[in-house]
Structure formats: C-alpha cells, structure tokens
Design a protein that fits this description.
304 residues; 13% strand; 10 strands; alpha/beta; 2 domains
C-alpha cells in the first residue's frame, strides 16, 4: 500500500474511495489493452474468415455445458469441433477442499464421462480429448474478463465473441432414458448449499431419485429417507434421466446446467452469496427461501 493510499484512507474516506475506483479503472483498461483486446479481435477475425471453428474448454463441467448455446449458434454457419482438456490445475488462490475434482478443473475420468454427451450433439462435428489440436477459440478465456462473476455466467461466452444465442431455447440434445422416467430428480452438491433451505418436505413424495455423487446422496438421504440413488455411467445418461424427469431440483452443479440446457421443469436452489446462474426460459425457477421452494414445487408438480 503506497503512502498516498494510506493517507487518504486515514484522512478522507470519500477521496480514498475515489482513488481506489480510479486505480481499478486504470488496471482494467490496461488488462484490456494488453490481453483482452487482441483475443477478441482475433476471435472476430476467425469467425469472419473461417468455415470451420475449433473450440477448447478445460472446465469446470458446468462451465463447459454453459458454452454449448454459443457453439450451437455458431454451428448454423460453421463446422464446429469441441476439444476438452483434462487435468488443468485450478489457480493456487482457490483452496476448496470440497471440490469434487481436487486440484483440477476436470480429471481424465470426468472428460471420458462428458465426451459421450458432446459427441451426441448434432451441431458438433468432432469432440475429443485435447491433445494439441489446432484451436481457434479458447473458451477458458472467459475467466480473464474484468467483469463481476455474479452475473449469469452463461452470457460471458457471448462477450468473448459478440454472438448472442437465444438462451430460452434448448441447446442439449438427447433421447429419453430407457427406464428412469417421470421421476423427481435431484442433484444437490455439497458446495454452495443455501443456509435457508432444506429438502425435508420431499419425504412425503414417491419416486425421488438422486443422480449425483454418492456422498452427496448420503448427505441428502438424512432429510429424505425414501430417496433413491442411481449411478449414471456418464453425463449423457445423466442428461437422458433429466430430460425424462417430472421435475429437476438442484443447486449450482452440473445437474442444474444440464436441466437448464434441456429446459425441463426445474428448480434452482440459489445461494445468496454466490448466485452466478439464473434460469432462462419457461419452466425454470430459482428460489432463496424455503416457503417459495415448497410453493413453486407444488405448482410444478400439480401441472405435470
């Protein structure tokens, strides 16, 4: 902290806040000129000149799914390839022991689980694990943007390209599941749970299935004794189950991102401290408080 900053902080709060604002503004302008400007101009040039576009994403899994509406929109005029990188390390400042993939955005196992989903999308020509293939658009660059990450994160991909897909339309393609249909489906991550919410009222309902991780299932089963567990072989099967469900319920996790992409009836448990994702389109609702959770659930269940 320099002397001017210390002096202003001690003697003039208004000028101190203005000083901080001005410094932050200059830092963002420098970031744009030195890093962001070149990236977005290169992306724009490639989108204008090339007939085939290759994308790279390294995760998280939900962030990857959130990039699909952009890819689908671009695929209307371009051949699109999608490569997924495994074992890209999380930044050192992230110290979250509850993250399911440890120190990585995606593990090799997770990439193998997500590739069948990507390969089933008609608008993606090639989808493989990344092994130094030529890349046109590195979708991971959204993390470099000087924006508030509490906005609807799916829109950040549009800010990389200037292309705005219709987020109210489905962008995940899959068949119905062969056996698990018309169920109440839940994925509730142990991360980012709201302190205002519990799922205990669901013990009064039948045919409730959890399709996330087993430790997450065991945690929720304490509140819903009749909760069933289904172990999905990959994320394509998870998407099939969600597409076939009566209602999907979850917090910020891959499961909700899939439900959002499929546009099924869905309820999002929103953490007030970390909103980040918002429903787009019909049959999608978020909630902060228990009374609204139960009210919207009753409305949805009575329609289905």
């Amino acid at each position: 902290m320099n002397l001017k900053k210390i002096w202003l902080k001690l003697t003039n709060k208004k000028n101190y806040l203005q000083y901080k604002f001005d410094k932050a503004k200059i830092a963002k302008q420098d970031l744009f000129e030195n890093k962001i400007k070149n990236f977005i101009y290169e992306v724009d040039k490639k989108l204008k000149s090339k007939d085939e576009i290759s994308f790279l994403h390294s995760g998280h899994a939900g962030d990857l799914v959130n990039s699909l509406p952009l890819v689908k929109e671009i695929s209307k005029t371009k051949k699109c390839n999608f490569y997924v990188e495994s074992e890209k390390k999380l930044p050192s400042y992230i110290n979250d022991n509850s993250h399911p993939y440890g120190n990585f955005y995606l593990t090799k196992k997770t990439v193998k689980m997500i590739l069948p989903l990507l390969q089933s999308q008609s608008y993606i020509s090639v989808s493989e694990e990344f092994k130094d293939q030529e890349i046109d658009i590195n979708l991971n660059f959204f993390r470099e943007l000087p924006v508030n990450f509490n906005i609807d994160i799916i829109r950040l991909y549009s800010h990389l390209t200037g292309i705005h897909p219709d987020l109210q339309k489905p962008y995940i393609e899959t068949n119905d599941h062969k056996s698990l249909q018309n169920k109440i489906v839940i994925i509730r991550s142990l991360r980012r749970q709201s302190p205002f919410i519990n799922y205990k009222f669901l013990k009064n309902y039948k045919d409730i299935f959890f399709v996330g991780l087993r430790n997450e299932f065991l945690d929720l089963k304490k509140d819903i004794p009749n909760l069933n567990f289904y172990d999905c072989k990959d994320f394509l099967e998870m998407a099939e189950i969600i597409k076939s469900c009566k209602i999907f319920i979850g917090n910020l996790s891959l499961g909700y991102h899939l439900a959002e992409g499929l546009k099924v009836p869905r309820l999002l448990e929103t953490n007030p401290e970390f909103p980040l994702v918002y429903p787009n389109g019909g049959k999608g609702y978020d909630f902060y408080f228990q009374i609204h959770f139960e009210k919207i659930f009753q409305q949805l269940i009575s329609r289905e």
